Amino acid sequence: MSATKEEPGAAGQNDRDIAFGKAAPRSAFLGNTVRTSKYTILTFLPLNLWEQLHRAANVYFLLMSILMAAGQYTPLFESSVKAFSTASVLVLMMCISAVMAALDDLSRHKADAQVNSRSAARVDLSSGSVVQVKWSEIKVGDVCVVKKNEEVPADMVVLGSSDATGRLYVETMNLDGETNLKSKAAVEKTQNEITKATSGDVQNIRKIVCEGKVVAECPSKSIYSFKGNVTLSGTTYPLMADNLLLRSTVLRNTAWVVGVVVYTGQETRVVMNSRSAPLKLSTLEKTTNRCMLVIIVLQLVMTIVCASMFTSTKGDFTKLWYLGSGEGKKLWLPDAFAYFLTFFCLYSNLVPISMYSTLELANVAQRLFVSKDMSMYDKATDKFANVRSMNLVQEIGMISYVFSDKTGTLTQNVMELRQISIDGEVCGKPPSAADPPPADGKRRFSGAEDVVNARRKLRGTQVDKFAEILAVCHTVVAEKAADGELKMEAESPDELALVQAAVDMGWSFQQRNNDQLKVIANGKEKRYQILGINTFTSARKRMSMLVKRDTGEYVLLAKGADNIMMGISTTVPGYLKSQLYDFACQGLRTLVIGQKIMPAREALAWAEKYTAAQSAMTNRDQQLDELTAQAEQSIEIIGITAVEDKLQDYVAETISNVKRGGVKVWVLTGDKLETARNIGFSCSVLSENMEIIIMDTDPENATGSPSQQMEKALQTARNAQKNKPVGLMITGGMLETVLADDGDRLLELGEMCDVVIACRVSPSQKGEVVKLVRYGVKPSPVTLAIGDGANDVAMIQEAHVGVGISGKEGTQAVNAADFAISQFSFLMTLMMVHGRWNYQRFSKFVLFSFHKNIVQCLQLFTYTFLCAYSGTSLYEDWVRNSFNLILGFPVLFLGFFDRDSDRSQSLADPEGYSIGRLGQELNIAKIIFHIGQAILLSMIISMVSLLTYDAFAVSELADYYTWGTICYVCLIVASLYRLAFMITTWNAIVVLALILTFIGLWFALFVCGMLTTLMGGVVTQILASPLQWVCMLATPLCAMVADLVLDAVCLAFGYSNRKIRRTGGTEGAQSRGERSVGLKQQFLQQDLPSFQRERNTKTVGGGLLFSGTVLLLLGAALMSTASLPMAWVQYAGPPLEGRHADEFTFKKCNDGSQCDISFKIKEKMQGPIYVMYSVDPFYMNVNSFMKSTSINELKGTLGTEKEATAACISKVNEHHERLWPCGLKAASLFNDTYVLRRMQDSKQIKIQESGIAWDSDLRWLKNPKEYPNTAGIRWLYERFPNINGLRKDGVKNEHFAVWNRPAALPNTLKLWGIIEENLAAGEELILMVHSNFPVSQLGEAKKSLILVKKGLFGGRTDALGLVLVVVGFIGLVFGIALVIAHLMGCREPTTVAVDEVEMPLAGASSGSA
């Protein structure tokens, strides 16, 4: 063919040739299987991994894992944190996200399988039968039959239909969201042949189509155009869009159609047009990312400080003999940069690795709660609310601007003709809220009697002209239902309302059959021949139809928007504008009705051109537009219709409450200005005390040029906003001009207005307005757009949050939206309840996630100053690894249940919504405030743990693994306290979650003990220590006093979070306080029995009294340990200061010498008496010192020199003998020995050197089978021959077992033996010291022997006791003051305006009341 690609029916270069019934090879065309799922089994892992690596946090921790591995396995730098500790948690968190993605995609796979398994009818040309096949089995070239009310399985060219003329109707709601019917047609020539051949039997289709061929254009997204041709019996016919049936459309009002499949599967129009909504990143996520920057800055500061300290003090530690004197890993990087990386890795946990995954789990619960909320269930449609964008469940709590459509959103989209005007005579009643519903549920035109009167008053023909246009000029399709009732389907509710109202005027539409239309007019049948239909479009805003009456008269019937119809009319009646204004003021939608009588010759000539234009090969649309313009001239205006679209229930209350929350409401509608104004008042968008500014290009409303109007509007708004609210009404024409030339000033005006109503706006203008506000207003507001139709998609996708109303305008708005609800009034619950709760939950969730990790890293930071700046982690790797997992569990339930008010209180207190709108609960200031709280809590944990270190040492709990675990337990318990302090809503699940977390802590520590040899037995030892339980209790109590004192100060000075009226401790499932029945429903409706904790003088004072009292009791108990008897003998290093003279003895004993030192016992000491030695400072906690060991050797493996080289520093001696066991701990074994004698009789006091090591250690420490006779090995006993029993016991020697547990602090304090004898008060003893352990080269290092009586808490704890007494006293003082204030009836602090900057209570970010 010579036609070009752009021509209808033309064949193009890339077109496809399709033979009827002969299946094209599968390699040529795609199959009909459709896949909407993201993943397959093969692509899931790489694709999901790629998606997850688009998250900044995941990339951060992946890079940190790689960096840690580089520090662990290469000489690049020294990493004190093993790579697995971060990588394993990262993998676990990513696995959680992957599982959730897989579950989400599984539902898509199931939906795909359901669609692909649907049944379709395919003509088997070989047998002549119609067989049922799956949709997935259909191929290009198949001939398929689609019957009435069935979905079309693939894009197919219609060859014929059950209608002899080839007309058919399809519903395209699945395609474009519209519920109206679209007219399609079979190819005229093939329809004629099929009609003859089939004789009504679709099976006979094989007789005509077996030799045919279709040439179709290459697959395209366009659903409104199609180009190709069909060849039958050697003759080629053009194909156009009307000949193409699209997949997923539904056949209506037609018994069957037959067609040839031309596109399948992913190449069908509906699939090519399907696209996911644009990715919307939550504003809170962006805020979280900004807060993350603060955390990264903190991490850099901590890293730089520690790296600088290491660089400046490096020389002091590298010369220490027991640290290898510089021997070990030679780093490739300069020390300054290498240790910068060391500390950067150490503090990497400042960024909470588990936050995003646990937040996703919380979001799943919030989506469930929203989608199962009975208060947002619509009985009429049997629909719940639907959450389509899970990451935006918090965003609905931050809305500043609501952009709303009117029709179908604020109104019901149920149209009823209320009034008409025929030649100026008004018939019908204006709308009234008091109108009773009809008994049969069907509305009737209220002006039927007025029409009868009008027939008498006017010429009867005018009434009939009016009714004729309503009954004939439309595209309504009618058919009789099974019960004989006439059922009508229309393109729009307006059109259907007019046709139904015409029945009440005596004109009843009966049937449309191809180009024939039948009407019963005043009891008589009338038939019309349709010569041409000029359809309604949003651009034309009118519809016309050329018909031939059964009298032979030709008439053009027309209806359309007033401004359009007045432009094409002969004259404009004097009554028209005033009545249009009156109808609009009543909130009615108006159309102007008219007609034009056409001479037969002119009408037939026009109809001939119209038919030719419809079949034109080129410029088809342009020719039709020109013909339409020719016909639609000199229209005689007959009258006006005024249709009411009733407001939905509770619209006015919803908008009023949304505005009370400080949210600005903009209504964007296609209605006339007067109609929009009336609706604005009726739904409380506008109010009587409001200064309303009107900007319009219509000369009747215009007060100057657009620029002049803008200047005047700005001045008016500036003057008025000081005294009363301001509203702006602007028309589409003015909006188009202003957006192009004066957008900044429009934005300025809009910000000053409480309400903006834009009238006569197009769908694209709606999107432009939302975009203007979203990106123009500073600071950037969170916007919400709500609509119900395809014309609202642009603004729904442009806004931060899109809400679709699942109404009568199809599903396109819902499909494009982030949330779907059935009624506008549900927006109140969505925003004021779920939005408010979820915002505050998210804020607390994020703040706690940062807080706990900051406290942990501050503990590591503090410890860095105590371990020679070597970068040692305070916690063993597996223990450290469990941190985010343990605390990631209970915070979920804060994200599930916490709220600052119950449902009814949230709905009754919309002003409280401003907390989220203003972003008061999560911002940089909040993060800084919580960093301060984290510093305080870290200081408390450090204080408690450091002040009890010596006492733990007496109980043999001061080694790195045990004392670090004790600090870890205090950290977890303190973090659980912080979480509990942030929680406002307490129910059984929350309490259970906290208990399970505490139990899970000990389970995790037991697991760590199985994974790390030196962690074995740690949990058992800790659980048996009373002091550990005291520390675990004292830490949160001290933090509680600090927090409540801050709260007390806030209350005293009148600062508090916004107060909320409370009516009880539990919430209602419905706004009226109804309780849900059954535990499952109580959970889904967030209606579990709960206790709402408040902050006031009573609760804060009571909390201070409780915590203060308990701390006083604990402090008194700890202070009682000051009486424990002790004797301290220092024999090396500079004398200690601050020791009691009667307990302390100093006599220097040089390295390598033997000394006798006499000292006295101050107080009677009853056995058992612990004999302990101290080397201070001695940095056993330096990273390289602790790593320089071979656990395999200590477990009884001789190993190889290569293995020793990989594991240890200090592996051979100067004679190149291999040292066993290797490592710095074995090389620096403490080998001083002691003998005690009584001065009086020189009798030696027996010091028991057995029973000083843990049984668990002695079980795993083993000598190799070669011990002690292998040549070339320098055994431990050969290096330290003076240690009793070392040759016999080897590494199972208890002195070695004790030494093998490195001290947690530089003050190395360890047990040497136990005296079972009693020592009398005043008794003088002689200590014989063999000073073999060299400290003279260690500068200020001191060696001491200490005799101590072990008490309930180990050693002395009076220093911590004193601190607890002071803190408890402070708590009591403040508590008593608040209780007295409460009893005296002192007024609670007045509420501070939410728009002011508030000083937060120390507890959770927002939950305080």
Any overview of this molecule?
With 1409 residues, the chain is α+β, with helices and mostly antiparallel strands. Helices cover 41% and strands 19% of the residues. It contains 48 helices and 46 strands. It has a 9-stranded mixed beta sheet, with helices on both faces. A 9-stranded antiparallel beta sheet has the order 17-16-26-25-24-23-22-21-20, with helices on both faces. A hairpin with a 4-residue loop joins strand 23 (542-549) and strand 24 (554-560). Helix 1 (44-52) crosses helix 3 (83-116) and helix 10 packs parallel to helix 29 (890-897). The radius of gyration is 43 Å and the shape is elongated. It starts with 15 loop residues before the first strand and ends in a 26-residue tail after the last helix. Mean pLDDT is 84; it is low at 1-12, 1057-1075 and 1389-1409.
Give the SSE layout.
Elements: E1 16-19, H1 44-52, H2 56-73, H3 83-116, E2 119-124, E3 129-134, E4 143-147, E5 155-161, E6 167-171, H4 173-176, E7 181-185, H5 188-198, H6 206-209, E8 213-216, E9 228-232, E10 235-239, E11 244-245, E12 250-252, E13 256-263, H7 269-273, H8 283-318, H9 335-346, H10 355-371, E14 386-387, E15 399-404, E16 411-422, E17 425-428, H11 448-457, H12 460-472, E18 477-480, E19 486-489, H13 493-504, E20 507-513, E21 516-521, E22 524-534, E23 542-549, E24 554-560, H14 562-567, H15 576-585, E25 589-598, H16 600-614, H17 620-631, E26 636-647, H18 651-660, E27 664-668, H19 673-682, E28 691-695, H20 706-720, E29 726-731, H21 732-741, H22 743-752, E30 755-759, H23 763-776, E31 782-787, H24 793-798, E32 801-805, H25 812-816, E33 819-821, H26 826-864, H27 877-881, H28 883-888, H29 890-897, H30 903-908, H31 914-917, H32 924-947, H33 949-954, H34 960-982, E34 985-987, H35 988-1011, H36 1018-1023, H37 1026-1052, H38 1079-1084, E35 1090-1092, H39 1097-1119, E36 1126-1132, E37 1144-1146, E38 1154-1160, E39 1169-1176, H40 1183-1187, H41 1191-1194, ...
Parallel strand pairs: 15-27, 15-31, 27-30, 28-29, 29-30, 31-32, 32-33, 36-37, 40-43
Antiparallel strand pairs: 1-8, 2-3, 2-4, 4-13, 5-11, 5-13, 6-7, 6-12, 8-9, 9-10, 14-33, 16-17, 16-26, 18-19, 20-21, 21-22, 22-23, 23-24, 24-25, 25-26, 34-35, 36-46, 38-45, 39-44, 39-46, 41-42, 41-45
Helix pairs in contact: 1-3, 2-3, 3-10, 8-9, 8-26, 10-26, 10-29, 11-12, 12-13, 15-19, 16-17, 18-26, 20-22, 26-29, 26-32, 26-34, 29-35, 32-34, 32-37, 34-35, 34-37, 37-39, 37-48, 39-48
